[in-house]
Write a structure and sequence with these properties.
alpha+beta; 4-stranded mixed sheet; two-stranded antiparallel sheet; globular
Length: about 140
Amino acid sequence: MITIELVGPPQAWSAPKVTRNGHTFSPKYQQKLDHQCLVRQQHTSDPITWAVCIEIYFYMPIPKSTSNKTMNAILSGDVLHTKKPDIDNCCKYAIDVIKGIVIADDNQVCELRARKIYSKEPRTLIYVTSMIPDKIGC
């Protein structure tokens, strides 16, 4: 199993934007490059080229305006994160960041599990596991 940690609040994938002049740009491009740098520091082997299972935990920041009562409910796990960003867009971003570094392509993902959790330490944890029993390199 390979473990990757992206520090900071989890990010959601966003489609490239088009200006009035017709130019396209990606608002999160620099952030994605920074996260890819972190991934390269954590994973120095060649990208995996076989089927994988990816498990992602998004530790979402607790809003600053949270009352003590709600804070206790959040920390005990009674309150789930049901706000933006959407979990599917967070998964797209996380997989896009590890693509080409940890896995060769996102079409190798045969199983995906994800969860959003409130936390005092916002981050994203990505676990990559081989789906091929004789491939131990994962």
